[in-house]
Amino acid sequence: MTSIQNTAQRIRGAACILAATLAFACLPALGAGEAHPAAHAAQHAASLSPAEVAGGWRLLFDGQSTQGWRGYRQQAFPAKGWEVKDGALCVLKGGGGGDIITEAQFGDFELSLEFMCTPKANSGIIYRVQETAGATWQTGPEFQVLDDHGHGLTGRENHSAGGLYDLAQPAETKALKPAGEWNHARVRIHDGVVQHFLNGVKVVECEIKGDGWAQRIAGSKFKEFAGFGVSPRGHIALQEHGDEVWYRNIKVRDLDAPLPNEVALFNGKDLKGWTAHLRDDGRMESVWSVHEGGVLVCAGQPIGYIRTEKEYTSYVLKLEWRFSPVTKQAGNSGVLLRVQRPDTVWPRSIEAQLMSGSAGDFWNIGEYPMQTEEGRRNGRNTKHTHKAERAIGEWNAYEIIVDGPVVTLRVNGEEVNSAWDCAVMPGTIALQSEGAEIHFRRVRLSPLE
Questions:
Q1: CB-based contact 269:290 (threshold 8 Å)
Q2: Is the separation of the CB atoms in 194 and 206 below 8 Å?
Q3: CA-wise closest residue to 331 among 443, 440, 416
Q4: Rg for the chain, CA atoms, rounded
Q5: Confidence check: pLDDT of 7 > 50
Q6: What is the largest CA-CA distance in the chain?
Q7: Which residues of 270-284 are buried (b: 16+ CB within 10 A; e: fewer)?
Q8: Which residues, 6 or more positions from 331, have their beta carbon under 8 angstroms from its beta carbon?
Q9: Do the domains spanning 28-254 and 263-447 agree at the CATH topology level?
């Protein structure tokens, strides 16, 4: 866990620490050095924070029942081979229950869970599964779940943990915890790109459509299976491979669905709900225009911004942006949060940067009260932890979580910055005009108040 995540977690977590302490105190005593599985369950009970709920997350496993799951090509959950214990969903060694799938289907989605392998264990997280073949893996791509060490692997093979099985090997930065320890996995599919994350590190990213995807399939064992990896939506499966593997804290969000209590800041048709502040008394309509497909285009001159007429305090904000796909000119812009009056070209606010190559930076405008990591801070600017942008001209996704005193920036599914001790006061949300053509779409939020 990074220091920025640690800080945010400390701010939110005092009540959780007390609850876990009380739960642990009620457990029966064990021998010296012995860990009680229920202790781990008490500290990692299935739950969602208000920010996660606002961001569209929901539990796929409540830690107590098998509700929402059934056997592959079966009407009910398997009668053998799987068990719920100590807050985890366990596939038993030699159980023979077969793979399980979600009752719901998903297109673009984000899945988060923890898994723990026993020595030499093998399993997998398979997605966009269709029930048209003999096995889940014959239609759906797989996030490999494996004890690499027990199988004598280096960890870079496309059959190793975190890899896109037989299609893409994990990155060198992969860090897998050994058998007997919990690992965190995340799978995200958005706009034709699939990403695998292992213990907070992106280990796979590739297109899951078009010629490149077809070539990957043609070079794999899956070329023998008609319909593999082509469905735009399907079930999520957990694989039974004859080995004992534990899963817990399973949650998902449908990236195609509206956010809970969603507020569409941009309706895709006009600039209703927005007002402008531009240099030289520029007119909003001469700088900002709505194009086909619900795309909001900013010409970039004169300098200034459009802002919401309404004020917001705490929320999950989602939007997508790109610089011109025609000129492919690098540019600058930003999303201004908790904007304070009066309107000036640089109003007192927190800026989530959009400059090419710097998306995910913070800029403190007007000495807005906030704290960021000192090692990445230079005056009013705090650099992002790493670059997560797509190529210039391609669409990018911003998720900005403004949760009381904590602001978190995620670019294309990757957390790249966090601030804390931010002044909690209502303000508008602004999109900057800063010298270059930039496009926006799907600008929406879910309130946290």
A1: yes
A2: yes
A3: 440
A4: 23
A5: no
A6: 76
A7: ebeebebbbeeebeb
A8: 300, 323, 324, 355, 356, 434, 435, 436, 437, 438
A9: yes
User: Could you tell me the fold of the domain covering 28-254?
Assistant: Jelly Rolls (2.60.120)
pLDDT tier at 24, thresholds 50, 70, 90: very low
pLDDT (mean) for 271-287: 95
Note the CATH architecture for domain 263-447: Sandwich (2.60)
Q: Report the range of poorest mean pLDDT among 12-21, 57-66, 354-363.
A: 12-21
Q: Measure the CA–CA gap between 417 and 409, rounded to whole angstroms.
A: 5
CB atoms within 10 A of CB 342: 7
The amino acid at residue 447 is: P
CA atoms within 13 A on the CB side of 249: 20
Residue 113 amino acid letter: L
Q: What is the pTM of this model?
A: 0.89
pLDDT band at 300 (very low <50, low <70, confident <90, very high): very high
| Mean pLDDT, the chain, integer | 91
Q: Higher pLDDT residue, 180 or 5?
A: 180
Distance, in Å, from the CA atom of 405 to the CA atom of 104, rounded to the nearest integer, reads 35
Beta strands in 140-224 (DSSP E): 142-146, 183-190, 193-198, 201-207
Place of tokens 């050095």: 33
Q: Is the peptide bond before 302 cis (omega within 30 degrees of 0)?
A: yes
Closest CA to 403 of 382, 424, 430: 424
Least confident of 34-43, 56-65, 286-295, 329-338: 34-43
Q: Cα separation of 146 and 153, whole Å?
A: 10
201 closest CA partner among 420, 2, 352? 2
Domain ranges of the chain: 28-254, 263-447
Long-range contacts of 10-15 (CB under 8 A, 24+ apart): 11/405, 11/406, 11/420, 12/49, 12/403, 12/406
